[in-house]
Amino acid sequence: MPDDELLERLQHFHHNAFPQYRAQFQALVQDGQHPTTLFIGCSDSRLLPYLLTGAGPGELFLVRNVGAFVPPYDGSHGHHGTTAAIEYATLTLNVQRIVVCGHSHCGAVQALYQGVPDEAVNLHRWLDLGRQAVLPMQPCPEVLRRTEQRAVVLQLERLLDYPMVRQRVQQGRLTLHGWHYVIEEGQVYVFDVASGGFIAASLAEHSGTMPCPPYPPYVEHDGQIPAV
């Protein structure tokens, strides 16, 4: 029989990795989970939230989807995992912060310019959540980078349309953070509301904490104020 790599990895976890965290997992079962952060990130395999933040078991409540997009809060009752996760994280888990993390070389952003196969009808509709961030330019590395960052800001704005999110932000019980992770640099750029742009975390004074609304507009590095 061919080697079963996944089985080998499961066995390695059980025998080698799990014993290091046994007590933590047992406590998380007995006491329940109490994550402090809802992390909304792209499904891209190169984005590793636990490695990026240094978080351990029970610290992050994770939502992964194509593009790290946030659906609008429209009061509909359709099936939507991201919306349900936002409600659960805020109303039940009482997280203290929500991070929206986009990244460089994002396939979702590239697809906004290049399109997707005709068979990908659900993906095409999902990408509508990022189309407001698209620039009226031919895609190039700079345009794609700017679009990735614009998309992060767009999702933060959508989050504030969720009543339970906006209320907690206004009460000072919840903070919102916009991140853009540049894979090849190992650098996260955090959205700074005061300057209206993204700042390298290695130079920043905060992790992208957004104060209570209203907010100044997001300003491109060349001074443009996009209609997002």
UniProtKB/TrEMBL annotation:
The cofactor(s) it depends on are: Zn(2+)
Q: Which GO terms describe its molecular function?
A: carbonate dehydratase activity
* Domain of life assignment: Bacteria
Provide the catalytic activity annotation. hydrogencarbonate + H(+) = CO2 + H2O
UniProt-listed CDD domains:
beta_CA_cladeB
What InterPro entries does the record point to? Beta_CA_cladeB, Carbonic_anhydrase, Carbonic_anhydrase_CS, Carbonic_anhydrase_sf
User: EC number(s) per UniProt?
Assistant: 4.2.1.1
Pfam families the record matches: Pro_CA
PROSITE patterns in alphabetical order: PROK_CO2_ANHYDRASE_1
Spell out the family assignment given in the record's similarity comment. Answer: Belongs to the beta-class carbonic anhydrase family.
Q: Please report the name of this protein according to its UniProt entry.
A: carbonic anhydrase
Q: Name the species this protein comes from.
A: Comamonas nitrativorans
